[in-house]
Amino acid sequence: MEIETLSETFPLFDIADPELLEWLTGVAVEKEYAPKQKIITEDTWGNAVYFILSGWVKVCQQRESDSLTLDVLGVGGIFGETAVLDEAPRFTSVIALTRTNVLSIPAQRFLQFLFKDAQVHHRMLKLIIKRWRKVNQRLQLAQEAPLVRVANILLDLSETYGTDTTLGLEIFNLSSQEISDLAGVNLEDTEQVLERMGEKGWIQIDKKEQLLILSNHKQISQLIAN
Question: Which CATH architecture has domain 3-139?
């Protein structure tokens, strides 16, 4: 992969030493996964760090009869980095939602890179803190109405991974259950909220292209602000 492309897609690398970044791309491996294919299983966390080049993935926890979606990542997303830094056991998996391409960097090589570039190391720590801040924000919204919690999830995904088009911000059309899990709202309430948003013209669903479009980003943002 070209260094310029890597820096543009992943801000983590835009301050990296060019020579070190070239070395890193030399040890990285590009992999492709089909929809529903597991990228990381419970016993393979910590083997590598993954950078999403295209597609969407979800982090989920398997339960007795189903799974719980904990997070969703799109292009520019990174996963596996905390397992490399902290070797505690993980009880989650990462599964491709769409055809997905990732750049896989072996754990030891990634750690070597961080130790050699202090600026990237610092930015990596800031990225992890930002992720925990997002988790804390979701917890703070636990007492809010379902409409606010669902809106927060759609805004977060669209602002982080969405594609800006003439119709609005496009993200992958997650299932109602996946949105329900992320928002901490029961399935029935989630479906009602999505239906209401659709009726008001705030969102559009393109089932053929598997897209959810935030047509009125400003209106949805105001739900959180209020």
Answer: Sandwich (2.60)
Residue 100 near residue 56, CB atoms below 8 Å: yes
Neighbour tally for 80: CB within 10 Å = 24
In this predicted structure, the answer to whether residue 89 has a pLDDT above a threshold of 90 is no
Residue extent(s) of CATH 1.10.10.10 domains in the chain? 144-225
Q: Report whether pLDDT(88) > 70.
A: no
pLDDT band (50, 70, 90) for residue 226: low
Q: What is the distance of C-alpha 31 from the center of its chain?
A: 18
Evaluate whether 108 touches 118 at the Cβ level (below 8 Å).
Answer: no
CA distance 88 to 69: 20
State the fold for domain 144-225. Answer: Arc Repressor Mutant, subunit A (1.10.10)
Place of tokens 């949805």: 220
Report the side by side order of strands in the sheet with 168-172: 163-165, 168-172, 211-214, 203-206
Q: Determine how β-strand 93-96 pairs with β-strand 100-106.
A: unpaired
Residues 113, 136: Cα–Cα separation, whole Å: 29
Alpha carbon distance 213, 35 (integer Å): 21
81-85 mean pLDDT: 90
Residue at 186: amino acid letter:
N
- Token pair of 191 as six digits: 């479906």
